[in-house]
Amino acid sequence: MRQFLVCAGKFIGEIIDIFYPPFSRYFSRQFFRYGVSGAANVGFDWLLYFIVYNYILQKQFVPLGFVTISPHIAALFVTFPITLFTGFLLQKYVTFTASDLRGREQLIRYIAVVGVNLLINYFGLKLLVELLHFYATPSKMVVTVICTIFSYFSQKTFTFKVKKSI
């Protein structure tokens, strides 16, 4: 399985690199790959969120017996584990391939950073949807931009860092 993921990551990276030359003056290859693979995962997240919120949950509150979850938060909790998994795989095998940290350590660190992003998502959606009465899907998009900025710097310097050789 690992070999398949490495090969798939190289293949995806090579496809992304086809579009890199016009941007090479402005971005490093790693940053470009982060942007493209991250944008693909975000697009997947938005599409999945839209489908879950509108068609699976049908914008209905979800009663769990002891608590009732609003539809925009329930959609977040349904889509979160899926995009956590796809995001980690893209970052590990496409973007930050030079990291010398063990995969397990990367995953733990990735989950920690994503956990912070989940909190940003939760409180951001609560603020925008429930307090400011914005629509759920555009609110999710705004919160995603904030999370993306935080995430890039965290993933580069913490999750997938490369030990400097002397």
UniProtKB/TrEMBL annotation:
GO terms for biological process: polysaccharide biosynthetic process. One of its GO terms (cellular component) is membrane. The chain crosses the membrane at residues 31-53, 73-95, 107-125, 131-153. Residues 33-160 form the GtrA/DPMS transmembrane domain. It is a multi-pass membrane protein. The keyword Lipid biosynthesis does not apply. Keywords: Membrane, Transmembrane, Transmembrane helix. Signal peptide: none annotated. It comes from the Bacteria. InterPro entries: GtrA_DPMS_TM. It holds the Pfam family GtrA_DPMS_TM. It is found in: Membrane. This is GtrA/DPMS transmembrane domain-containing protein.
